[in-house]
Amino acid sequence: xxxxxxxxxxxxxxxxxxxxxxxxxxxxxxxxxxxxxxxxxxxxxxxxxxxxxxxxxxxxxxxxxxxxxxxxxxxxxxxxxxxxxxxxxxxxxxxxxxxxxxxxxxxxxxxxxxxxxxxxxxxxxxxxxxxxxxxxxxxxxxxxxxxxxxxxxxxxxxxxxxxxxxxxxxxxxxxxxxxxxxxxxxxxxxxxxxxxxxxxxxxxxxxxxxxxxxxxxxxxxxxxxxxxxxxxxxxxxxxxxxxxxxxxxxxxxxxxxxxxxxxxxxxxxxxxxxxxxxxxxxxxxxxxxxxxxxxxxxxxxxxxxxxxxxxxxxxxxxxx
Amino acid sequence: xxxxxxxxxxxxxxxxxxxxxxxxxxxxxxxxxxxxxxxxxxxxxxxxxxxxxxxxxxxxxxxxxxxxxxxxxxxxxxxxxxxxxxxxxxxxxxxxxxxxxxxxxxxxxxxxxxxxxxxxxxxxxxxxxxxxxxxxxxxxxxxxxxxxxxxxxxxxxxxxxxxxxxxxxxxxxxxxxxxxxxxxxxxxxxxxxxxxxxxxxxxxxxxxxxxxxxxxxxxxxxxxxxxxxxxxxxxxxxxxxxxxxxxxxxxxxxxxxxxxxxxxxxxxxxxxxxxxxxxxxxxxxxxxxxxxxxxxxxxxxxxxxxxxxxxxxxxxxxxxxxxxxxxxxxxxxxxxxxxxxxxxxxxxxxxxxx
Amino acid sequence: xxxxxxxxxxxxxxxxxxxxxxxxxxxxxxxxxxxxxxxxxxxxxxxxxxxxxxxxxxxxxxxxxxxxxxxxxxxxxxxxxxxxxxxxxxxxxxxxxxxxxxxxxxxxxxxxxxxxxxxxxxxxxxxxxxxxxxxxxxxxxxxxxxxxxxxxxxxxxxxxxxxxxxxxxxxxxxxxxxxxxxxxxxxxxxxxxxxxxxxxxx
Lengths: 320, 354, 202
Ligand code: HEM
Ligand code: FES
Hints:
The complex is a heterotrimer.
Chain A: E1 6-16, E2 21-28, E3 41-49, E4 52-59, E5 70-75, H1 83-90, E6 96-100, E7 103-104, E8 114-120, H2 125-137, E9 141-147, H3 156-163, E10 167-171, H4 180-185, E11 191-196, H5 199-211, E12 219-222, E13 233-237, E14 242-246, H6 252-258, E15 277-287, H7 295-300, E16 303-304, E17 310-318
Parallel strand pairs in A: 8-9, 8-11, 9-10, 11-12, 13-17
Antiparallel strand pairs in A: 1-2, 1-6, 2-5, 3-4, 3-6, 3-7, 13-14, 15-16, 15-17
Chain B: H1 27-31, E1 49-50, H2 70-83, E2 88-90, H3 95-112, E3 117-122, E4 125-130, E5 135-140, H4 151-156, E6 162-169, E7 172-179, H5 188-191, H6 196-199, H7 211-220, E8 228-237, H8 248-251, H9 263-266, E9 267-278, E10 285-295, H10 296-299, H11 303-315, H12 318-323, H13 330-338
Antiparallel strand pairs in B: 1-8, 2-7, 3-4, 4-5, 6-7, 6-10, 8-9, 9-10
Helix pairs in contact in B: 11-13
Chain C: E1 26-32, H1 35-45, E2 53-58, H2 67-71, E3 77-80, H3 84-97, E4 102-108, H4 110-122, E5 131-134, E6 140-144, E7 150-154, E8 156-157, E9 159-160, E10 167-175, E11 180-185, E12 198-199
Parallel strand pairs in C: 1-2, 1-4, 2-3, 4-5, 6-11
Antiparallel strand pairs in C: 6-7, 8-12, 9-10, 10-11
Helix pairs in contact in C: 3-4
The complex binds protoporphyrin IX containing FE and FE2/S2 (inorganic) cluster.
């Protein structure tokens, strides 16, 4: 990414929303306004985690009409690689950070007659911004939000206050569940369906909708994969003619960047396809974690997505 | 909106792009003309570079170039729209992108040309002044009822060049709004609603070369804050901005009226500076297509351009010359240009003096 | 753009498939002329669609009339219509009242498929959500780029615009929004020099 696509910001608020989620607010260091953004957009936050550079993508959840600052929410993942732990433990008000300009891989289709949104857990964040935007545009929408319990159900109160009857909450621990089949049956023609949450939920919603005859063009989903941890491995770059070590809690993309390689990316979560690399040799198993490559491509071992995928074996050579 | 107002800056030429064709480039405009050929031959390519500020005085000095033809071009646009209102269309879901563009143009114009334009904001209550066109407008940002027309039409009546807005969805771009009155022979009314490959369908060779696949992949990932630009070019008889398919039966016959005596004055090189900009609130991509015209007589006053242009026209594939619509006059154009090509080598790049 | 590319490379040219049953809560089927045969094949292959099927059938401009065949298929609703214009209000109303899960099938001429697709898009369906099959006449719906008038059932190239009278050649460039191909004046540069018409679209 070139220079103009990043913003230097100051952290102005860190709020513990509940025992797992913290909300962060960023304003521009130079005092100027943030660029507007579209509901569903994310920003990539750069972290210096004790010398390890981490870049994680988080959905923007503030009102897109509010250009005084951006807000994100981060759920702490105690077993992950540390990006969310760093945000929770290391980021304090007043700190200077670098974030990317907004990128939207989960955009609203503004032609829709109605927007039906299904959120699970922290997957609520892009919808908060989208609903604010739809509300001001006067579009029709409805949110169905499933969470574990009242304590961990972030932002439900604020959403009810702003959008009233249009938001519906479901608490797992109270044995409440979305009646998906019925919900999908009664939607007017021209409804678009959006889902964001855990993988299992996304698969359930999309496969139910497909089975009920919803066309692919009306289905939208977003799942951010945190790059998985794994065993260390080495990768050879055929163009740059160097070999890079990937540590156990580092993604291959992060290792490439640490080695000074300018590798392309947008989502850093296996969804956008930007980081795709051709594999020219591999004598082991590629651990594909992305949603981008087709099953055939994955099986053929011809490509790899360095932002999330890993390798187990002696020798991996990629074209970069 | 009134175009004849007390404010008169002699910088802006009073000229026409039809009828008596009084359009002319001043020596300054000739000198800064965006000659689009960095080499002695031409073929389609994914020719995109960052849209960053360039040499002072050049057309790259500003984000949007406002030049001596501004007022007359806007008058020509108003004339074309009056004859054919279908040249400006915006599908209903593109209104937000129209506001994005309005904001971008007003902010950049006011910042880069404070002598002509001013924008003051009190949260969403905005005050816009366009002195060259005599416009003084107070309105509420994002509230359509406070402008005399939709935001997209409103602002593109005040900015040179055609504009299209592309919605992004289903891993494609969809041309769903446009202000198109100075086009190189394509119809907005016909193309609106198409995707990237569909609206480019008539272009020869480039599909097979994979150019559109690569360009689309690049554009889908285009980031806010990192616009890019490219050039396209064609040939037009007389400085006619509105070479529309709609009026092809009216301007087409002029191609048969070129003679060796008048060709230098009447045959123009038409260059489009195209920018690609990600818009913030709508996530749409804006595509300004800024048209620059230069007569061959003016072009050959720069020896490097004259030599190179002769070589480009000589070697351009017939498919391209046919598509661009100058195949029938190609021999006459070459005859004219050959007199200015002594065979001397040309330096790389397009600047006239290097 | 005065040059027209060959069919196989014109990327705006629509592609059609064959009518095959889809999962859905209701099935809305529109056909004209020989397209009726495709509908019969569809419902005979998937008889359980019949109680959920609504058919609108328009006899072909070439005289092909399969009304009796379709009426006998046993669909929940069968509506014969003399023309697209007479059926279009009904089609828009059915689409406007429908719910997600409705499946839309169109068989017959390109002009019919294009117009139903256009109405379906306006009702909010993605353009590729229709199941289509081209049958019968290859005659084209053509928009004159000059006067904007649409001429139906064009078989000749070049042809005379039925609205403004210009001599038009028929491009393969296709607009989904207009459901029409583009007609461009063939003798613009040399008025009066019009090549003889050929029957290109049978
Ligand atoms: C996203 C914004 C763009 C829009 C709206 C756009 C639109 C168009 C249109 C309407 C035409 C005329 C097609 C016809 O004959 O009917 C055209 C031609 C063409 N476009 Fe684009 N275009 C865009 C971006 C690009 C990009 C990024 C490339 C980069 C490779 C490109 C390459 C071309 C070429 C090579 C031609 C043929 C031009 C000639 O020879 O005169 N376009 N474009
Ligand atoms: S960066 Fe998006 S898939 Fe890797």
